[in-house]
Model the fold of this input.
Amino acid sequence: MLTPETDPLRYPIGPPELPTTPLTPAGRAPYLQQLAELPALLTAAARRMGGERLQLPYRPGGWTGRQVIHHLADSHVNAYVRFRLALTEDNPTIRPYDEAAWAELPDVAASPITVSLSLLDNLHSRWLTLLHQLDEAQWQRTFYHPGTEKTSTLEQTLVLYAWHGRHHLAHLNLLAA
Done:
């Protein structure tokens, strides 16, 4: 029997696997590279799909390709802010948001995907500039997420958002196939 985590349409690359011990700089490097490559990979996937396929859901009951792209911009903006909060406050409590409700806001249907693709490209550039400056102690700084009731390190959050980008890129690739 399929669970949400084993459903290949919902989790085409599987669920995230977060580190439980600190990573070395070399251990973080692939995740930083994945964040750096994501905007170009998303743009290429969107081009392969074309406009009509972007209006389709990647699975029954799932978001459309358009919603996925706009969601990635929304989510990664929130992640960037969470990093900055954790770097400037002691274990801040971050503000969760209703991702599904955000995906239904009118700007998602009205904005061209190029707006969110450009936003992601510029955001990732700025975010990666910050991440490449962090020292080992800063990677272990934390924030608390009241929705999941978990405290996460910035290093774990890096891994999560690198996965998040690949996860949704795989959804777009389902539409492009």
